[in-house]
Write a structure and sequence with these properties.
Blueprint: H1 2-5, H2 15-24, H3 40-51, H4 75-86, H5 106-119
Helix pairs in contact: 3-4
């Protein structure tokens, strides 16, 4: 779905072709299987690369938009999340967390697609 939304795959491409195009574009690993769940941070990394996002630098927990600053493994992930948040792509949960290791749900996927299409 992201391959189509991002203009990497055509509307009529079958799923295996869309995945192949995502791999060729470097947005997913060569080891990615198309029908597996993705973590929220994995999707964020993919979107950041596809959208040409530059990570915000020099963040500390007080300047980070999510309460679970420590749940992010590195400054790059924190930086892309801050930028994607500022772009309106990711908003987080009501408790102000992002939950980077959680699986992206179908409902969250639908919201992301809507937000991405709104920024293009």
């Amino acid at each position: 779905m992201f391959a189509r939304v991002l203009g990497i795959a055509n509307k009529n491409d079958p799923p295996f072709m869309a995945l192949s195009k995502m791999k060729s574009a470097g947005l997913v690993s060569d080891f990615t299987i198309g029908d597996t769940d993705m973590s929220r941070i994995g999707v964020a990394r993919m979107l950041a690369k596809a959208l040409g996002v530059e990570p915000t630098t020099g963040l500390d927990s007080s300047a980070f938009p999510f309460a679970d600053f420590g749940a992010f493994g590195n400054d790059y992930d924190r930086g892309i999340m801050a930028t994607l948040y500022n772009m309106g792509i990711f908003k987080g949960y009501d408790d102000h967390t992002f939950r980077p290791g959680a699986t992206l749900t179908r409902a969250e996927l639908a919201v992301l697609v809507d937000r991405i299409l709104g920024t293009r």
